[in-house]
Amino acid sequence: MPTMTIAKAINAGLRAALEQDESVLLMGEDIGTLGGVYRVTEGLKSDFGPDRVVDSPLAESGIIGTSIGLSLRGYRPVAEIQFDGFVFPGFNQITTQLAKMHARSNGQLTVPVTIRIPYGGGIGSVEHHSESPEALFAHTAGLRIVTPSNAHDAYWMTQQAIACADPVIVFEPKRRYWLKGEVDTEDPGASADPFRAHVVREGTDATVVAWGPLVPVALAAAEASAEDGRSVEVIDLRSISPIDFDAIIASVTKTGRLIVAHEAPTFGGMGGEIASRVGEAAFLSLEAPVIRVGGFHMPYPVAKVEEHYLPDIDRILEALDRAFAY
Amino acid sequence: MGVELPTTEFSDIPDELAMELEAHAHDGAEGHGAMVQLLDEDGRFRRDSKLAESIKGLSEDSLQGMYRQMAMIRRFDTEATALQRQGQLALWVPLRGQEAAQIGSGAATQAQDYVFPTYREHGVALTRGVDLAELLRLFRGLSNGGWDPRATGFHLYTLVLAAQTPHAVGYAMGMQRDQARAAARGEEAGDPGAVVAYFGDGASSEGDVHESMVFAASFKAPVVFFCQNNQWAISVPAEVQSRIPLFNRAKGYGFPGVRVDGNDVLAVYAVTQWALERARAGKGPVLIEAYTYRQGAHTTADDPTKYRLSDEEQSWLAKDPLARFEKHLRAEGIADEAFFEQVAADGDALATKARADILEFTAPVLADAFANVYAEPHPLVEQELAWHRDYEAGFADAAAEATREGGR
Fold first, then answer.
1. For residue range A136-153, what is the model confidence (pLDDT) as tens digits?
2. pTM
3. Residue B1 belongs to a domain
4. Which residues from chain A sit within 8 angstroms of residue B181, using beta carbons?
5. Which part of the chain is the Transketolase-like pyrimidine-binding domain (chain A) (predicted)?
6. Residues A189-205 pLDDT 10s
7. Which of A10, A255, A292, B219 sits CB 3.0–4.6 Å from A266 for a disulfide?
């Protein structure tokens, strides 16, 4: 089984999709000759040509909008938005057009557009390069949102998103692009359904739900917690729309405590949605309120202080302490 | 579509048009600037025009057909406005005054072309074979479309200004690829198609129009941008959208821009046909600015007397597209009184049908709206639908219970 970085796994996933389906094409700024600013699309233009790996004008609304048009003509465009904070010029096209086209046409039209967005902080960059806007898109019906945390998922989710008849946003955890892992390119295994959560560590006393860049942090916190004699279960959510509530509720029913950790600000974030659902479905199983760990209600701060903003092992441990104190 | 029209090729048109534009740069004083025109305001055919050649091949039937469609859509529009006033429609978007721009351009499209309208293109919809009753359903609040965009080559209306223009370019890029792929396989690709992206003078200020034109130019996409400059974006005049004639903007993107008299159906037809042929031949985009006038309100929700002068309205009524074409057809002996009487009678029948259609409409149920949020199953939607069904069923039980009790 080959070992590769998440970036390389996405590249391999895109390559497989381009090979398998002639209607797949990639669109974005700098994705062709340069191979993307993170080199995720490296080598694809030279192998598949400039009509299938398109270096587009620098215009996010244009990239998404033309991708919608291409999909209406029967193509499967994969649009890359270079960084999270630059998706907003394309926000209108994504939320008012892409998300609604199937419903507006009473199901006559499908728009199988994939949007790849490198997201999240921790790379020491300047403003608009470190944001986690997943909740803004999850609130819009018609979109699907997934985020891989490891190379195997990255390889398969990329292809599953492209094959999906619905528009899918893939939030790629950019600070994990260089994280290596085994990729079974023959068999997706448990990753066959991109919209199912995975229990990545079993435990009996508390559950931590995390996704994308925070999954390794959650696992490390669970390890540290074990030293205190606590058995912490970790769920990699994987899909933000739809959310696999069954997996979360099954875990909470067993452990009685739930922490939701994400990089985005907690206010109005996905953690609140998860907490609320668990409150409705598993209230009597809870030993403590659901506790959220996330970013603060502020613009993503400058890089020199981002380590104090981003949830880390200690912040998750502190939340666990609070949950166990009830 | 709709009307049988021969196609004419005139490949070296940029020079021709340049001459044409120069020839018509006469009425700049009125703010029109250079403008292609084949029918003057009295309906006289301008045989001196270079473009005159291009419509010589039109049969009398074709010309009558264009008039007929203009008259029918005007009558339909009048009826729909009345229906809104009577509370039968939530809103109506009148097209009165823009019949020549819409029928002329729509008639120039062919079956393999694809049209991305905004929300006022009722005339174009007619030329593409859309069932007009679906427009009434939309504005009554029963659907967001209803016609099959793939069968008609006429996309759904788009209410977000200019959002459809990048879709048009992407669709055109897809057409390009279809041709190239078929050629690479050595297959017959079928006749090449082109796309028309409709938008208005107000929408021309939106960023999406700019991005669309950049993409279209960069990829030489077979798309015709058709701007109906009807002078007013609700209450804001065109001068606030652009300090230069809108067609001049094309120059900045590197493709031709043409201003055509949008109240002259023959000129609109000729210019659009040229632009579509050019696009289908792989020569890239064109911007057409149809210089016209919205005679009524932006929608039934606004009152144009609050923002424009009746002098202006009167001066444009003198250029009315339908009256002008009627004068032409009469003067040239192409249509007689009996024809016009028949068209008027058919228009009344269409209006009567529109009124009857509305009474036949049935409302959809909300439960159906769950079906098409996603193309593939989505657990949240399924869960909410199940909850909704249970909830509604609770009322049904209560109603049944009440009936039983009432019967005792």
1. 999 999 999 999 999 999
2. 0.94
3. no
4. 22
5. 4-179
6. 999 999 999 999 999 99
7. A292
